[in-house]
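debug: dumping io for the single-chain case to check the tokenizer round-trip. Nothing else runs in this session.
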Amino acid sequence: MVNSFTKKRKENIYLSDDDLSILKRYDIDYNNFSNMKELMFYIEDIINNGDGQDDLEDLLIKLNDYNYYFYTNK
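debug: decoded output
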């Protein structure tokens, strides 16, 4: 549970320690992206090319939820 807490890692990017470990498995460096949407598009490309596993798909869903929560005016 401790590793699931979301933290601001970079301007406009929020990730938990668990999220970072999944990104590391796929050699994805979140520092190469300026915002969550860019990161999400990159992950989606990996999944669409058949190179991602279920954990990467789950992460994409989670990031989509983060993006909605942090950047949508409610």
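debug: round-trip ok. The two ends are 27 Å apart (CA to CA).
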